[in-house]
Each structure stands twice: as C-alpha cells, then as structure tokens.
Amino acid sequence: MSKLLDQSYEAVMARKGEIMRKAIGIDYAVFEFGKLGFDYEGMMGSVAYSLEETSRIQRATGVGNTPLLELRQLTDLARRVAPQGKGARIFVKDEAANPSGSFKARRAALSVYEAKKRGYAGVIAATSGNYGAAVASQAAMLGIPCLIVQEAFDSRGQGQPEIIEKSRACEAYGAEVLQLSVGPELFYIFLQLLEETGFFNASLYTPFGIAGVETLGYELVEQTRQLTGKDPDAVVITHAGGGNVTGTARGLEKAGCSAQIIGASIDLKGLHMASDQAFNRKSFTTGHTGFGIPFAVWPDRSDVPRNAARPLRYLDRYITVTQGDAFYITEALAQLEGLERGPAGNTSLAAAFALAQEMGEDEVIVVQETEYTGAGKHPQAQLTFAKENGIEVRRGDPRESIPGKSIIIPTHPAQIQIKDIELDHIRLSYLKNVVGEIPYASLLEKDREYLAAETRWSQARIQTALNVKKESTQ
Amino acid sequence: MSSDHKSSLQEHVVSGDWVEIWNVIMESGKRAPQVPEDTQKVPLEMRLRGFLVNDKARLGEIVSVRTRIGRVVEGKLVSLHPRYSHSFGEPQKVLLDIGQELRTFLKKGRVGDE
C-alpha cells in the first residue's frame, strides 16, 4: 500500500506527523497548549505506567533490580589524591546485569510491552547504541519481530567497532539490522520503514522510554539507604539524549531523595555529528556532548513530537570528562574492582571519581550505570581503531587532548578532572530555540509557566534574558 | 578485510545462504539540505544481511534477500557469508601499565616516578 505513496525525501518528511501518530499511538496534540507549551506531567501521568506497574513489567522479563556495588578501591584512590578529609564513598549501579547488558533494557521493556499489548505487528527503533540490543532482546522475549536502523559506517565502508558490535548483538537476538552510512537522512529511511511495516516506534523519547528509567533512580535510593543508612548526596548520570538523566531524576524524586543530579558527557567539542569524515574519529558513540548539548538545548528535535526527556528540568550540574579519562577509569575499574565494563557507560564513573574529591568522606556519590563490554566496545579495540584512523594516542595530561585529533590517557589519577558546562548558557540557547521569533509579551501565562518549569528560571529572568538576546542580535 | 577473503573467493551462493546486500539510497549531491559539506559529497548507502532468495547468485549481481523478520529487499550482492570482524584490538601499552601503577600507588601512596 505504501508503495503507492511518493517515496521522495520531501514527500516522506511531509508525512512525518501522520506516520508518527500511527507508529506511536499517542496524540500529542491533546497535551499541547498556548503558543509553545505542553503539559509534560500530564503526558507522563496519562501515557506511561506508574512506578509499580513499570517495575512489574520489567521484572517479568528479568529487567532491573541490579546490584549497587561499593567501589572501595576507587574510593581509597580518590581519597589519596583529594584534599584532607575529602573523598566521598563511590557506589555504582551495575546496570550491565540487565538481560541485554545495559540500563537500556529498562526503556525497551516498556516500549515492547506496549507494542505487544496494543497489537502492533512488531517494533522498530533507530539507534546505533545499546538501545538496539535492548529492544531486540525484549522483542525476542515477547515474541514479536524487531527491526533496528543504525548509522553504522562511513563512506569508506568502515564501521565504528562499537556500533558493529551492536549490530551483532541485535542479530543475535533475532532482529533485522539495517545499516546506513553517516547522515541525518536516517530519519527519512526510518519513516519509510514505519510506513512499510506498520511497526511500533520504540523511540527512546516516548513517555515509555523515560518512565522505564524511573525504576533505576528509585532502586538506587532504596539500595543506598540499605547499604549506608542514608540517601545519596550526589548521583552522576551519563548524559546523551537526556532520557537517562530525566528518568533517573524522576525516580529519585519518587523515592523522596533530593540528591544533587549531575550529568556527565564525554567532551567531543568540534566534531560534527553528521560529518562523514568525523564519524570514525571519535571513540565514544554515545554519552558525549555531540548528543548531550543539542538534546538539552532543543529536546523536541527527537523522533517524537514532544520529547519526554527534558534534562534541563532536572540537572543541577553538567560536566564533561575526556575520552582518555573514561578509558583510564575503565581500566582502573577492571584492575582494582574486578569489574570489566564498557567504556561509554563509565563516563559518569570518571566524573564521579573527580567529583568525590570535592565531597566529604562521610558523603555518598552514586554512579547510576555500567554497560557490558565486548569485542568492539572495549578500550583496547577503540584505541586500536583510533590509531588506525590517525588519532594520536599517548599518556599525559588529558586536558591537552583535542577530540578527533588526540586521546591522552592520564599518567596519574589526579589528572582526571571535570569541566563544568554552564547550564545557564544551555538554558538561554533552549529559550532561543523554543521561543524563536515569538514576542514574549504575546505568550500566554501557561506558556510562561511552562518555560519557567523547563528552565528552572523565574519568569522575570526569562523575560530579561530574551529581551537582552533580542537587543544584542539587532 | 582478510577475514572475508576466503568467502569472497567462493564461486557463488545458493538460495537460503546468508549474504549481505548494498544499495545507494541517496546520490551524492542530492542529500538532505542540512547535511554538512563533506557528507553531501558522498552517497547515503545501506547494507543489509539476510537469506538469499534467488536460486543462485554471484558477487556484484542484483539479488533479493529475506531478512530475519521476513522482509524481502533487493540490492547488490557484496558479501557471501558475511562475518563480523570487529575484535578486541591490539594490546595498548597506554592501558596495560595502569593496573600495576594503581596497585603500587595504593600500597605506597604514590604513583609513577614521583
């Protein structure tokens, strides 16, 4: 039937709204109001499942309930390089223990459950990351077909090893894997496939994709209370598309925990995410600023009309570490703690190692994920690949590294340092993107309240910032 | 891609064999407008693995495959019995030393040559 429709890029993109409505089954218009706002909590409350239901759905396929482990050696190490009396206890939620090897199983569990419940013929997801394996694994468990679309290789036909490992994992679970070369037109192909198959869009950014992570936040609070007799003081979350931050923070909130919420990304400044030449010059395919910043300043750029991941609502602090820091801490985690885990998932661990040194010895910092490791997604594999792509790899001060040109592995644990990204700058960019040319004076009160909730700024501050912005660009 | 060498020497594949096909989806210069310059200069390509539908085929021929979920897709046959060749890479000196350094540091409270 879809064969009769115009399949050109422009025609398919023009059908986006209609295709998405059928493929997600959520009428986003119901939640929209005013000139730009939408009822976020209303959407989360009426579309997704409650925490209890989510937990029940996840347990049915063995998802969640992962261990919280104290990293005693890394804590000891942090204390030795920290000022006297500093060095929080570091804990990690071992999400690699999920069926598909990462926290993404939590997000996939709800989406695939929903797809089956509503009678969709299958599920489809556009992802080059762990989420693909998670959806494929869940689809295998529930017995429905799964199609994964990946951006996987550059114009030389060279695949990113980490992504190729994900292709393999998806196929191992019985999914079809369509691999594409670099480019944002992946979305066009994705829309065509949704239309052709009639499958459910297991997007990372529906309310299901986010509510699935709430159990992670909730569990980690309960476990921290059990192990330490207190709440975590800080929780560090690897930040890319915003779902990990949003879901975890919502779970913390539901557990009544007010820990500081810190997002951490690998610094990939200067690398264009849609560039064919830059594609294989990075060693991390997720958890980096190339996703972290664009998704924070413009969440609704995702594959759904209203993104349920709203990281700016939850982040108290946003920091970066280098690729070299993450490789170093991955090696340290294996050698000192006996936990061999994937490097991308250890982005937040590298950050926590530095953050712990700012905190008191009686405080607790929780790293909320690990991921599986294997061929391709392993530090040795990624550094070999980096060298083959002309990247300089050496020991030294990681702060001297340049993304896409060099990876510098610290020579000393004290060289793992974090860099703050000004959240207020991100908030301003967000406002500029969302408000655009609409005069602030013409916004409804509800819109203004929405912007305040989105940015955690007062209405007065937003108005001033937008006016200043306007004057400075004139 | 030495691992593919042996299979690519094979004469042909037959119906039901596991193969990889390739297609150009968008020609270079005709990519989406927001695509950066270097990407604009190259085509958007796809690769897909599945079971050969044709009775018999050779590399370079246009064939159909049936994917793991039953879709039938046409494309140029580029790999026979495609294998995954990603690996754990070569041992990296920059990583190999870290374990011992840190264990020493935890014992003595110092690392490296300080």
Can you characterise this structure?
The complex is a heterodimer of chains A (474) and B (114). Chain A has 474 residues and is α/β, with parallel strands linked by helices. Chain A is 45% helix and 14% strand. In chain A, helix 4 packs across helix 10, helix 6 crosses helix 10 (207-228) and helix 13 crosses helix 14 (347-356). Chain A is globular and about 65 Å long. In chain B, strands 2-3-5-6 form a 4-stranded antiparallel beta barrel. Chain B has a two-stranded antiparallel ribbon with strand order 1-4. Chain B is of the alpha+beta class and 114 residues long. Chain B is flat and about 70 Å long. The two termini of chain B are 45 Å apart. The interface between A and B is large, with 65 and 43 residues. Strand 7 of chain A pairs antiparallel with strand 3 of chain B.
Structure keywords:
A: about 475 residues, alpha/beta, Rossmann fold, seven-stranded mixed β-sheet, four-stranded parallel β-sheet, 18 helices, globular, B: alpha+beta, four-stranded antiparallel beta barrel, two-stranded antiparallel ribbon, 4 helices
